[in-house]
Write a structure and sequence with these properties.
The protein is of the alpha+beta class. It has two domains: 182 residues, Orthogonal Bundle (Cytochrome Bc1 Complex, Chain D, domain 2), CATH 1.10.760.10; 86 residues, Cytochrome Bc1 Complex, Chain D, domain 2. Helix content is 36%, strand content 11%. The strands form five sheets. The protein has a three-stranded mixed β-sheet. β9 and β10 form a beta hairpin. The protein is globular. 39% of the residues are buried.
Length: 285
């Protein structure tokens, strides 16, 4: 159910600036990667969604940025995907195994997997994302150390796995375990105003969607392209890194990566992209 976002104090000032900012419509173009893989960048929203139509962040970007994602040879994020493939086939740990030892050809075994995470993990009693699933496999099956957040091979391997679902629609199963209550917790976080600027995720990506804040065109904030290559940082950026960056920008203390709060937010934000194609690695400004 859509909630109103009331902004006070500094948040009100920022909202006033946004409301008087330049308005630019997302482009009406099709994304076909390498001329072969059609990407769903527009789709009807699921029941209960605050938007009627879901739009990929790709539609809000400049022509140059859109062109980078449409060509795998030019997409700088593909370097991380290639590194992830090397990691997939590298033996590590006391058990003498690689990812490929158990899962074989990722193009077959991982197809569709990234489109369905986060998933319910009965052992831990909480949702887990691809990154946490990788760590679980490393510790329990490979006898290897878990990756620290955004360190080692975590981002490239996550990008490689999710890239195997390129073009497939995002689809979460909220009937698994207690996923629905985590969705509700994530929804509350999405609309919760934080920090000295008194802003929420919805302040930018819902209330002021389609406006410019400085040189940045505010999209719907969809998560279907993560890990994403951000030109601003000249690096691949994970979803929890982006969450923490946005919370930091409200001048609030941000939660730890993979904390309950951010896992709940990932469940909810991923659901908000239901039906849009996986674009990993997307290219954004």
């Amino acid at each position: 159910m859509r909630k109103s976002v009331l902004l006070t104090g500094l948040g009100t000032l920022l909202a006033t600036c946004l409301s008087t900012a330049a308005v630019a419509e997302p482009v009406d173009e099709d994304l076909v990667i390498d001329g072969e893989i059609a990407i769903i960048t527009k789709t009807a929203a699921p029941e209960g969604h605050p938007f009627d139509e879901l739009l990929s962040g790709w539609l809000y970007r400049t022509p140059e940025t859109r062109a980078l994602e449409a060509d795998s040879f030019q997409n700088p994020g593909m370097l991380a995907v290639e590194l992830g493939e090397e990691i997939w086939n590298t033996v590590e740990g006391s058990e003498g195994k690689s990812c490929a030892t158990c899962h074989g050809d990722a193009s077959e075994s991982m197809k569709g997997i990234g489109a369905r995470f986060p998933k319910w993990d009965a052992d831990s009693g909480r949702p887990i994302n691809v990154e946490l699933q990788i760590n679980e496999c490393r510790t329990e099956r490979m006898g290897a150390e878990p990756y620290k957040f955004d360190k080692g091979g975590q981002k490239p391997l996550t990008a490689f796995i999710k890239h195997q679902s390129l073009g497939l629609p995002v689809s979460l199963d909220l009937s698994e375990g207690d996923m629905q209550s985590w969705w509700e917790r994530g929804e509350e976080m999405y609309y919760r105003r934080t920090g000295q600027l008194n802003l929420s995720c919805a302040s930018c990506h819902e209330l002021n969607n389609g406006l410019y804040i400085r040189a940045d065109h505010l999209s719907q904030g969809q998560a279907n392209g993560f890990p994403t290559y951000r030109l601003k940082q000249a690096a691949l950026v994970s979803l929890h890194n982006r969450f923490r960056g946005c919370i930091r920008d409200t001048r609030a203390e941000y939660p730890a990566a993979f904390s309950d709060d951010l896992m709940a937010l990932e469940v909810y934000v991923t659901w908000r992209a239901t039906g849009l194609s996986v674009e990993t690695p997307a290219v954004r400004q």
